[in-house]
Description:
It is a single chain. Among the domains are: about 65-165, no CATH class; about 175-215, no CATH class. It is built from seven helices and no strands. The N and C termini lie far apart (about 160 Å). The protein has helices at about 15-50, 75-90, 100-110, 120-145, 160-175, 190-200, 205-220. It is extended and about 100 Å long.
Amino acid sequence: MARTSKKRKLVDPQQLEEARRLEEEAQAQGQEDMHEIVEYEQDFQERGKHKPAVRYNPQPYTTETLKETWPALAIDAASNTSTIREKLSWFGESYVGCEELPEDLAKRVYQGKRVLFSSEAQKAETMKFVKQLASEHATELSQRKGQTVEPADVQFENVSKEEKSHMISSLIRGAYDQPFKLDADASPILKNVLRNLSNNHTYHTEHTQQFMGSLMQNLPLKKAKAKAKSA
């Protein structure tokens, strides 16, 4: 009886290695998926557990708890001074908790904006950076024009007496501009315009006066009423 012999196929080692690698990756991925499922089930069980309620126990306000916002409470002379300083800081775009770097202050000075210095040392250091900015700007202009441009002499200018008086009036004395008023027999159109301007927070008293003055000048004059003829 004749035997039939089957030829064995040769296995490529690279294919065998690739198959083993894929099998290992599949096992690792399966373990990772199983780990995520276990973590999800544990998290779901933890969230489903009953948690004891936390009783709300509000603490009353005291002087100690209000110390952080004390400048906003105008109670005595010290708090009034702190409130004024806080408003002056807003004018110079300086806010509580923000670090004021001399480089940033120098840019504001060079651009002609308001700056509030905390000390003379900070002012002196800032002006050094201002001169440096002026020198860099002069160098750029020299390269652009092809001729030497001297740096601008930038000096710090204090608040004028008129502006300082206005600040004292508004921040300390509380003297504000009087709102614009119309006569009792004014046109309903003017009253409606004034009402809309009063509701617009971007329009201040000075702007309202200028606008209403220009509007009233361009309106036609009222015709004089004919006098009744005497019998």
